[in-house]
Design brief:
This protein is an alpha/beta fold. It has 11 helices and 20 strands. The longest helix is centred in the last third of the chain and has 23 residues, at about 320-345.
Length: about 450
């Protein structure tokens, strides 16, 4: 078999603060790839004993085992009946470290480390929320490289938040007039960003708010609106956004009557749910030694890993901080609010909010999947939200499914997946665009020939 080696990153050059970053160079094996004898999952069931051929990063054909021919010299992976999942889609991420890391620039080196964490968990596509112009542009450029060891990304630049100020390098901006709002939206579009994020919509002047939305719509940009509180949900729904992100984190025990009915009536809307972050933070509080799991920092250099662990332990010990009080106050209500969303039959996608305090990118998507199941969802329902739900957010039919012509983003995992033990990623091989980017740890699970 020709080598199915993961991508190789050639020398990396750290980006100087406020200077144009030097991008790393990547090499990888993009020759044709034949996967033999996989059981292919979809939300409609499992197609057993299938072969899948990848050519130039796209799925060329799928057929019964033994009936798909590969070009001479193609790499061959013998799945041996393993479960093939579409690459997972995390619809709400931050490419930042999940704790206090003072004086650390956001460089290509660090972005790739975070990207590798996501890929190792099976996330092959993600939507980045709330970022500075400089860093968002860096991420966009990195993710477009076909051999980049990071997910495919859609980007939002600085989020629009009333009173946030207008520091050019900040991840949040405050459009102060119609002209200013129009100019800021156009600038983000010109830089290649696909999303505009708006928080506290009700606090903007009406004409400024309208200028943000109308300009974004004219340019074909998606609208991400915050649902961090129920007041925000109500004001966000008035914008007719593409997504509402978060669950209500107030201590209110459930959503007010009628609020979710209004959301269900908007056909364009997908609700990006993140519940696993609450379970993970509580698990870390109950057993702080879980912070020290080496998987959490396996792609970070030692000094950074030590700094992160120390910072997160300090955060957990401070039960009086505003962040911890908010997490503690919301925790008892999250399950009921999630149940209400499922019952309302609003289209749901999965977002982890990785990068928030104490929430590492590694395994974040599986904390979501495991929490969905703990809160009453089936494994199929959770996987559908993490694939097809994410594709709906990305406004594409070329992700979240495995079919001819789609990008060859998939996982090969031991079956069965359920139960999800300890909210850890299963021991899967991860493939992005036909490139093997993460190998299983257990040699017996590889099934390669």
């Amino acid at each position: 078999m020709k080598s199915a080696l993961a991508c190789i990153v050639l020398p990396l050059f750290a980006a100087a603060s406020h200077a144009a970053p030097s991008l790393p160079t990547f090499e990888c094996d993009r020759s044709p790839l034949l996967v033999r004898d996989a059981d292919i999952w979809s939300s409609g069931g499992v197609a057993r004993h299938r072969d899948l051929l990848v050519v130039e990063g796209l799925i060329k054909s799928i057929g019964p085992t033994g009936h798909v021919k590969a070009p001479r010299g193609a790499r061959v992976l013998n799945a041996g009946g393993q479960l093939m999942l579409p690459g997972l889609i995390d619809a709400h991420v931050h490419f930042v470290f999940p704790g206090p890391t003072a004086n650390r620039p956001n460089t290509a080196v660090e972005a790739i480390a975070i990207g590798r964490q996501m890929l190792a968990s099976g996330v092959t596509s993600a939507r980045v929320h709330l970022d500075s112009i400089e860093h968002a542009k860096l991420l966009l450029d990195l993710s477009r490289a076909p051999c980049a060891p990071m997910p495919r990304l859609e980007l939002g630049g600085p989020a629009f938040i009333p009173g946030a100020g207008n520091d050019e390098q900040a991840p949040v901006w405050d459009p102060t007039s119609v002209d200013d709002a129009t100019a800021k939206v156009r600038r983000e579009h010109e830089l290649g960003f696909q999303w505009i994020a708006i928080h506290d919509a009700h606090k903007f002047a009406g004409d400024t708010r309208a200028a943000i939305i109308e300009t974004a719509r004219q340019l074909g940009m998606g609208i991400l609106a915050s649902g961090y509180t129920q007041a925000e949900v109500a004001s966000s729904l008035a914008l007719h956004p593409d997504t509402i992100d978060y669950l209500d984190v107030s201590p209110m025990p459930e959503y007010a009557p009628g609020l979710l009915d209004s959301a269900r009536d908007q056909e364009q809307l997908t609700w990006v749910v993140r519940v696993g972050i609450h379970e993970r933070f509580r698990a870390f509080q109950d057993d702080p030694s879980r912070v020290d799991d080496p998987r959490n920092t396996e792609f970070f250099e030692a000094g950074l890993a030590d700094e992160l662990r120390a910072g997160i332990h300090k955060t957990l010990a401070d039960r009086g901080s505003e962040h911890t009080k908010r997490m503690d106050g919301a925790y008892p209500t999250i399950r009921r609010k999630f149940e209400q969303l499922r019952a309302a039959r609003i289209p749901l996608a999965m977002g982890t909010d990785t990068g928030s305090p104490g929430h590492f990118a590694r395994d974040a998507i599986w904390w979501e999947i495991g929490t969905w199941m703990k809160y009453g969802a089936t494994l199929d329902e959770a996987l559908t939200a993490a694939t097809q739900g994410g594709a709906r957010v990305m406004r594409t039919n070329a992700a979240g499914v495995l079919r001819t012509g789609a990008p060859a983003d998939f996982l090969l995992c031991p079956a069965p997946l359920a139960p999800i033990a300890g909210n850890r990623a299963p021991d899967c091989r991860v493939v992005r665009g036909g490139v093997v980017v993460s190998e299983p740890r257990t040699p017996a699970a590889k099934g390669a020939t």
